[in-house]
Amino acid sequence: MKVFKFGGASVKDVKGVQNVINVLQKTDTSNAIIIVSAMGKITNALEQVVHNYLNQTTELKDSLDYIKNYHQGILRELFKNGRHPVFEKIEVFISDLETTLDRNKSTQYDYVYDQVVCYGELISTTIVSEYLLDQGYKNHWLDARDLIKTDNSYRDATVNWDKTQQNIIEKVSKIGLTVSQGFIASDPNNFTTTLGREGSDYSAGIFAYCIQAASVSIWKDVPGVLNGDPRVFKNVKLLSQISYEEAIELAFYGASVIHPKTLQPLQRKEIPLYVKSFINPENEGTSVKKGQRLIPFIPCYIVKKNQILLSLSSLDFSFIVEDNISELFNLFYNYQLKVDLIQNSAISFSVCLDDKFNTFDQLHTKLKAKFRVICEKNVSLFTIRHATDDAISLLERNKNILLKQSTKETYQMVVKQ
Ligand code: ASP
Ligand code: MG
């Protein structure tokens, strides 16, 4: 049994959906769980719906219409027979979404977010599943919310592995094709939760772990894992093989090609991960396996934008040591700020933070009472794994560097954007 994951870019239009069949044919796959993300940039569009809804803006209707029209356009092309039952199914999802908004009383952003954005995946998987069926590929559509159980940390839920494994073993057939959603899950009260942006890779990892899959393939619009994001870095090269450890490090530092949580479940069961091109599915791409050497052995570049560099020193020149540092980390944890880099000296302490939940300003006020605080917003964190002197000097050129640090394997610098 294999797990295939198709991201938003791979099913962003009619051709993309049709290409899913091409991938199944070229890889000779008949037993697989197919995990699909929302089409194209639909998750962003749904985030806009949440924004318009909670802020009661006049654009709410337009933003909902956009979601409706986007999918209907694709449906009309895929199913020339306008009476196909899929039209009705998608209409039901859209009206469910509208009912959810009408009935909701909560003003909690994270909760409302998850109840709304899940429709992107529910709709995309229904379209893919119905299209496969229409083309003679029998498959089962499963609602991932009946399978993946989590706590109620909306937008960043933690998986309950025992319950999830039980559900998946019970409900997912090991033969034939299953189609289900990435990114979405449910809490103990059956409210929808999500696993973090780009979390569909992680869903693929969860399914693979629970059924002990033979492999996971992530189908991308790039040939595999490259040694840098081609939108940011020039002359990037394909990494043909890497180890789980290396992939975890790359993902941790912000390589967006694989969601950071995806690799842990795969590594625990030594399930190989392939990252391949959905345009050329027969090409090798990148394989991620246990203990593999990095081939080719070259520097790998990662950038994380829109970070915050926070530097603290004590008001009275006392040391920043264990007790302060542990208090600070508690605060970062409580405010859901992700720490990407740490540097400290006797009286000062700097961290690079990812303010995903927009809580930084609250924390900032709190810290000012106790520390001298300098903060620089909109900075970029660059990381080079396996850095060489040449690679570093090239990257540093013409940049306003605020802080840098390097260890044997990893060089990092924070620069003004
Ligand atoms: N659709 C979700 C997102 O765009 C999940 C994913 O694509 O992996 O973040
Ligand atoms: Mg996506």
CATH class category name of the largest domain: Alpha Beta
**Tally of domains:** 2
Describe the strand arrangement of the main beta sheet, using strand numbers: 3-4-2-1-7-9-10-8
**Biggest β-sheet description:** 8 strands, mixed
CATH fold call of the largest domain? Carbamate kinase
Alpha-beta classification: alpha/beta
Q: Can you put this structure into words, describing what you see?
A:
The protein has helices at residues 14-26, 42-54, 60-78, 85-103, 109-134, 161-171, 200-211, 244-252, 263-268, 322-334, 360-368, 389-396; strands at residues 2-6, 32-36, 139-142, 177-181, 184-186, 192-194, 215-220, 241-243, 273-277, 286-289, 300-314, 338-344, 348-354, 371-385, 401-406, 410-416. It has 2 domains: 2-221, Acetylglutamate kinase-like (Carbamate kinase, 3-Layer(aba) Sandwich), CATH 3.40.1160.10; 300-416, VC0802-like. Strands 3-4-2-1-7-9-10-8 form an 8-stranded mixed beta sheet, with helices on both faces. A 6-stranded antiparallel beta sheet has the order 12-13-11-14-16-15. A two-stranded antiparallel ribbon has the order 5-6. It has 12 helices and 16 strands. The protein starts with a strand and ends with a strand. The chain is globular, with a radius of gyration of 23 Å. Helix 2 (42-54) packs antiparallel against helix 3 (60-78). It has 417 residues and is an alpha/beta fold. Magnesium ion binds next to loops. Aspartic acid binds next to loops.
Quick recap:
With 417 residues, the chain is an alpha/beta fold. It has twelve helices and 16 strands.
